Amino acid sequence: MHQDEITALFNQQAANYDAQWAKTVPIRHCLHLLLGASLADLPKDANILCVGVGTGDELIYLATENPGWTFTAVEPSGAMLDICRHRAQQADIAARCVFHEGYLDSHHAPEKYDAATCFLVSQFLLDEAARSGFFSEIAARLKPDGLLASSDLASDIESPEYEVLLQAWMHMMSAADVSADAIERMRKAYANDVGVLPAGKIASIITSGGFELPVQFFQAGLIHGWLSKRAGKHEA
Q1: Helix (H/G/I), strand (E/B), else coil: 129
Q2: pTM of whole model > 0.90?
Q3: Quick one: fold of 3-153+196-229?
């Protein structure tokens, strides 16, 4: 998908996004629990970059659990970012946040970050070189040994295992009150508009973007999560 198509899609979905996925919130809760544990050794005054922050789930969780941390929320969809900002204000954490509407390449930070999050974002980059370049942009914004927690849909779509996982995933979507038409569109999107790749292939793309070998710390259905450390080739 092109950048303008992605932005338009999420602008359209923003108002009902959280309500639509409310029944899948246990997955996010588990991801956030493991995310917090994975980043537990960061400094008490850590500065965190949240790429493609959406409506702000991981930001709200991390900020609530770590009152000394500060955050930069980067999101191309203005409608999604508005919801994120509103939620941050309600949680009384907005004073610790910078909100940037746009893609990562439009954000020029004066300082390096201790860690970054990037959940279900890189999968929209179908070109492998562009996907690697995206991770390279994140790596360039991190301090030496800075951490990246990322997640994407992952599977070998040519394997029998994928059909089993996809079927279960679609049943979960049905239970979450997603319409049959929307599920069919989702199935087609996974085949044509989303870069669903084997987990090992995604890990290699992250590595090629300037990170040490990623460690998978999470899986729920098709969602896989990795923790990666910035490699030494980027200058601080």
Answers
A1: helix
A2: no
A3: Rossmann fold (3.40.50)
